[in-house]
Design goal:
By secondary structure, the protein is mostly beta strands. The protein contains one helix and eleven strands, in the order H-E-E-E-E-E-E-E-E-E-E-E. It is elongated, with a radius of gyration of 21 Å.
Length: about 210
């Protein structure tokens, strides 16, 4: 098994090296910055027979990226992004009104390949890995006019590395400026020990990019 994995790794390195040599003379890497807003949710979760459904929560996404034109129609994009994820909660459990939110901050690293359907229109797809930076959860429980608010910033029990996917479409407004709409989704639950009904990040991001 170890020999098979090593052989696959060597083969991947050889293929990547071949691609880089093939396009070294034809491609040109450009670097840029991007920033925008996202609308994320943690989906739903069930614990001890109680279900919680998260609604969308608006956050920020921004960072740096690089784009390399591999051919007339194919683009390679690697990105390093700070992304705010999470969700809002407003529900009633056993007569107790609960309202709050969870904001989980990640460092996202998407690796995307883009296909230019038209000179100014590009469709992107690829994997991404997310590294947990911090989280903040706040909830207010109210009953019979009495309320209590609890806040937690502990990251114990949260998955520190999450693998997911990234799909998107980009439109070039000019040679330097682009507008991108991406759908982000995690393959894994946000918590380390979750059932199939545990929280999972997903949502959309509307981003403006500037290539130098």
């Amino acid at each position: 098994m170890k020999n098979l994995i090593l052989s696959c790794a060597v083969a991947c390195v050889a293929v990547i090296g071949s691609i880089n040599q093939t396009f070294a003379q034809k491609s040109k890497t450009r670097y840029g910055i991007k920033a925008g807003i996202d609308l994320m949710t943690l989906g739903s979760a069930t614990s001890n027979g109680l279900s919680i459904n998260y609604s969308g929560r608006t956050g920020f996404q921004g960072g740096i990226y690089a784009e390399e034109q591999l051919s007339s129609n194919i683009v390679f994009s690697s990105q390093l992004l700070y992304t705010q994820k999470g969700g809002n909660v407003k529900t009633t459990i056993s007569g107790i009104a609960i309202e709050g939110y969870t904001q989980v901050n990640y460092l996202d690293i998407p690796v995307l390949f883009g296909f230019k359907l038209q000179p100014d229109l590009t469709f992107y797809a690829g994997p991404q890995v997310s590294f947990l930076l911090s989280q903040r959860t706040s909830a207010t429980a109210s009953m019979s006019g009495v309320s209590n608010t609890q806040t937690d910033t502990n990251t114990d029990g949260l998955r520190k590395t999450i693998f997911g996917g990234n799909l998107g479409v980009g439109y070039s407004l000019s040679k330097n400026v682009s507008l991108n709409l991406n759908y982000l989704f995690d393959f894994q639950h946000a918590a380390e020990s979750s059932s199939d009904t545990g929280e999972r990040n997903s949502g959309f991001a509307l981003i403006v990019g500037y290539l130098f």
